[in-house]
Amino acid sequence: xxxxxxVIDMQNVFLQExxxxxNVGTACEYINHVAGLLREHGHVVIHVQDVExxxxxxxxxxxxxxxxxxxxxxxxxxxxxxxxxxxxxxxRILVEQGVGLVVVAGFAAEHCVLFTxxxxxxxxxxxxxLQKGIVSSQPEAITATYRDRHVVSYPVIDYxxxxx
Length: 164
Description:
single chain; Rossmann fold; 8 helices; 6 strands; 43% helix
């Protein structure tokens, strides 16, 4: 079984002004670490980019924040809806890659991260939120996400990729 890390909306347009307040640096450390583990073992890393406002913001604003490392092996997916599965090829990509477990990280815990997590579950994938890998303007949304959804930590992912 392959794992996939979905890095949702870690873009300048959403995060550039509030990186410290949203604790973006810590989330990026966890995201980058898990992405590295997955790449090293042939699993899938997908960066999801929200382009809903593409006509009203610059390309630089739509780009991913520099704290998120993008590797040439990573896949990129654009979306216009909150759920990264809606009107995209995400499900097809995950099926073609043989993914069984989807780990969701990124921004915003109470919106696109949550809706994409739900979308994965609705399509029959096992899904979990990356512990310490989500960002929100509302700290209570992160707490609620960890309380109400499946969560996976990086040591568990490390174990899975090294022992399965």
